[in-house]
Design goal:
The protein has about 250 residues and is α+β, with helices and mostly antiparallel strands. It has nine helices and eleven strands. The chain has two domains: about 70 residues, Winged helix-like DNA-binding domain superfamily/Winged helix DNA-binding domain (Arc Repressor Mutant, subunit A, Orthogonal Bundle), CATH 1.10.10; about 160 residues, Chorismate lyase, CATH 3.40.1410. The termini are far apart.
């Protein structure tokens, strides 16, 4: 019978390390958060380090990485290991600042721009008179040349404003402020999730059913009057959002 080696004997006697976070769900959440906040695109994810920093077992870490790989947030392969994919973290608080697009290396490509009679639902939402028109502006959203989203905007127009449509406005915000000379005061945003339909998948070169973020922005002027509605679809494996909240001071 082969004798047990000193190393094997040591491993048997050494107490197993405590894993305070050996939950797949919690490990996945912590790891996914690190992809947005601390890991650069292309960064290598080493299982040994993840086991230690996440206080999870190797099997739990591997299962979490597999889930992230299925969602396209990391890539895995023989001889190359696991690497973080590119991801954009956009701050909700600054979404009305057009200069942010430059900071995040984002730009747009116009797919369609036209003036159309406003459907009744938009007449109601934008407080438009019967028979009014809207500017339809549909665009691809790109980050470093990669397709990451779709944007569709409906901007309420008066008959006089229709005559001011010259060229292709880069987005609804600049169109409102630079061409219509309307100052935007605030945006009301709704966020949800959906799976990419066949048309969206074809436009973004992704698989049908890919998880996506869905946003809807109601833009208002400084007096609170509605100006435009923008609906956006972002790839869930490429875009995430952050927001800051401050708890109001308690009255003394």
């Amino acid at each position: 019978m082969t004798g047990i080696t000193a190393r094997a004997l040591y491993q048997q006697r050494r107490p197993a390390p405590e894993r305070s976070n050996n939950s797949l769900r919690r490990t996945y959440d912590l790891l996914r958060s690190s992809l947005h906040h601390s890991l650069e695109p292309g960064a290598s994810l080493v299982e040994e380090e993840l086991v230690r920093t996440l206080s999870s077992s190797r099997n739990t870490v591997r299962a979490a990485l597999q889930l992230l790989a299925q969602e396209g947030l990391v890539s895995r392969g023989p001889k190359v290991g696991t690497m973080a994919q590119g991801s954009i973290l956009l701050p909700f608080n600054d979404l009305l600042d057009v200069s942010d697009k430059v900071a995040y290396r984002m730009n747009t490509e116009v797919l369609e721009m036209s003036v159309m009679p406003a459907p009744s639902i938009l007449l109601k939402w934008l407080h438009l008179p019967t028979g009014a028109s809207v500017l339809l502006l549909e665009m691809l959203v790109l980050q470093d040349g990669e397709k990451v989203g779709l944007s569709v905007s409906y901007v309420g127009l008066t008959s006089d404003q229709q005559e001011e449509l010259v060229g292709q406005p880069p987005d609804a915000i600049r169109f409102l402020e630079d061409i219509l000379h309307v100052r935007i005061g605030e945006a009301e945003t709704t966020v949800s999730t959906l799976a990419a339909d066949a048309q969206t998948a074809a436009l973004l070169d992704i698989a049908e059913g890919t998880p996506m973020l869905w946003l809807e922005d109601f833009l208002r002027d400084e007096e609170g009057a509605p100006l435009a509605v923008t609906q956006l679809r972002y790839r869930g494996d490429r875009v995430a959002f952050s927001a800051k909240a401050r708890r109001p001071s308690l009255a003394s």
